[in-house]
Amino acid sequence: MRLLVLLAHEGRALSLAELAVRLGLPKATVHRLCAQLQDSGFLARDIDERCFAVGPALRRLALDTLNHGVVRGLRHEVLAALVTEVRETCNLTTLDGTEVLYIDRVEAQWPLRLTLDVGSHVPLHCTASGKLFLAHLPAAQRDALLERLTLAPMTKQTLTTAKKLRAECERIAAQGHSCDREEFIAGLIAVAVPVHDAQGQVRAAIAVHAPTARLSLAQAEASLPSLKAAARRMGGLL
């Protein structure tokens, strides 16, 4: 459990030697633990095969925990109340490796809308939540990630260079929220705010999105006080 907690908290792959030093255990013991956890899917080899990262079984466990019982219902209520207030679809997301994972979502009652099911993944570089998570990563970790990401041009507005994304991340960190200016899907805008845990770490994001035919980006940003209030309530439920 200590090994899994260390890897999950670190947010990057660690080598066998790093794990042994950080855990204060013999290399042979750590090697045996990693082999067992890899066999069960809780760990996976990284691109550099000398390093280990969290595996699919641990990601499923994290999602199942977030969606468990009473707390999940309370989080859904926060999201539903926000949708009633802003009258547009809102979602709760978290960072999952190099993608954004949808934890929960409440649809507004409009005929024109985009459907993304809970459990869906969307890119980091062209979504409001994704850019928000990038902006809150430690600089070294963000730079390493930007060098590895495939910055595919989803629309004409997509930021497709690491330089532009770094500048965008600086703006997001300064202003406290992130915007999708039709970067993921043409005709769709979004605004996202961070959800902090009790230690002040950004663990999730709440976002509102809508087609430009119904809502301008300026109108979406006008809902920031409501989004931030919901994020504060959500923070106590993580």
Give a description of the structure.
The longest helix has 18 residues, at 69-86. Helix 2 (16-23) packs across helix 3 (27-39), helix 5 runs antiparallel to helix 10 (224-235) and helix 6 packs across helix 8. The protein is an alpha+beta fold and 238 residues long. The protein is built from ten helices and nine strands. It folds into two domains: 2-55, Orthogonal Bundle (Arc Repressor Mutant, subunit A), CATH 1.10.10; 67-235, 2-Layer Sandwich (Beta-Lactamase), CATH 3.30.450.40. The mean pLDDT is 89.
Q: What's the gyration radius in Å?
A: 19 Å
- How many domains is the backbone divided into? 2
State the end-to-end distance: 20 Å
Which second-level CATH architecture of the largest domain applies? 2-Layer Sandwich
CATH class of the largest domain: Alpha Beta
- The stretches of 5 or more residues where confidence is low (pLDDT under 50) are none
Judged by helices, strands and strand pairing, the structural class is alpha+beta
Q: What general form does the structure show?
A: globular
Query: What is the CATH topology assignment of the largest domain?
Result: Beta-Lactamase
| Helical residue percent band | 40-55%
Number of helices: 10
Number of strands: 9
The biggest sheet, with number of strands, parallel, antiparallel or mixed sense and barrel status, is:
6 strands, antiparallel
The SSE order reads HEHHEEHHEEEHHHEEEHH
If strands are numbered along the chain, what order do they take across the biggest sheet? 6-5-4-9-8-7
